[in-house]
Amino acid sequence: MTIITTPISTAIGVEVAGYTSDDFLAPDAARDCQALLDRYGVVVYREAHITDADLVTFSRALGEVVVAGAGGHPDHPEISPVTLDPTKSALAGLRRSTIFWHTDGLTDLIPQKATLLTAREVADEGGDTEFASTYAAFEAMPADKRTELEGYRVVHSVAASQLLLNPAPTPEQQAKWDAAPSREHPLVWPRRDGRKSLLIGATAGQIVGMDAQHSRELLDEILDWATQPQFVLRHQWRVGDLVVWDNTGMLHRAIPYEPTSRRLMHRTTLVGEEAIA
C-alpha cells in the first residue's frame, strides 16, 4: 500500500496513512518516525492496527522502553492499558487527572522522551486527545516575554495536579500528595538542539520567589497562550490509530469521557534521554 504523509498544520502534527503492523518492523521505520517527530512533534499513523508485539518492537527501535511497576499488560509488561474500567487496568482510578493539560514526568530529573498510544476501543462520546506544541508557543511570544520567562523557575508536584481534581482535600490526602516527590525546573527548557520548550501544565504549582496569587495568574496566562488553537492538534480516535508524540515539547490531555466507556488504549513510553538544564 502507498504511504502518504500529510502535515496537519504548520505548528504541530503530521498524519501518515497506509501503514500496517508489518511496516513498523521495516529497518527504516523508526528512523522515519523520529525524523517526523523532530519536525512535527506528533505523528499520527491512521488505522495502522499495530499488534501488541509489534508495538513493543517498534518502541524499542525508537529508544529504551519504560516497564511500569504496576498495571502493565499481562503478556507485554512494556504496555500499559489506559482505561477508566478498573477490570481492565489496576490504574484506572488514576486516569481522571489526564483531562488537564500536562507533560509526563516533570517530577523527574529526566522526563520521558516520547509516548506511543494506540486505540483498541474508542469512546462513543468524548475521549479525543489534544496536543499543544510548547516549542511553537514559545517561539511565537514577543521577545521581551521570552526573556522574562527564561528567568523563572517552577516547582512541579503531584499535589499541584491533584488539587485540580480535588481542591478541598482532607489532611490525610494532602499529606499523601505532599509525600510524593516534587522537582524544581526552569520554566523554559533550552534544548541541546537549540529549540526551547515550556515546562508548564498540571504539575506546575509555584514559580520560585513569587507570591502564590501572582504565580498562579502567570502560570495560567502562559498555559492559555500555549494552548491557543494555532498551537493545538485535536485527535479524534479511530480503532487502530497509533499516535506518537514528543513528550518533552508537547502538552497533552484527554477530552473527558464516561467512566463506563469501553475506550481502551495501549501505551508504551520511552525513557528520557536529555536532562532538564
Structure overview:
With 277 residues, the protein is an alpha+beta fold. The protein contains seven helices and 15 strands. Strand 2, helix 1 (29-40) and strand 3 form a beta-alpha-beta unit. Helix 1 (29-40) packs across helix 2. It is globular, with a radius of gyration of 18 Å.
Amount of beta strand: 15-25%
CATH fold node name of the largest domain? Double-stranded beta-helix
CATH class group of the largest domain: Alpha Beta
Distance between the termini: 44 Å
Summarize the structure.
This protein is of the alpha+beta class. 25% of the residues lie in helices and 25% in strands. It folds into two domains: 4-92 and 108-123 and 236-270, Clavaminate synthase-like (Double-stranded beta-helix); 133-227, Double-stranded beta-helix (4-Layer Sandwich).
Summary keywords:
single chain, 277 residues, alpha+beta, Double-stranded beta-helix, 2 domains, 7-stranded mixed β-sheet, 3-stranded antiparallel β-sheet, 7 helices, 25% helix, globular, TauD/TfdA-like, TauD-like_sf, metal-binding
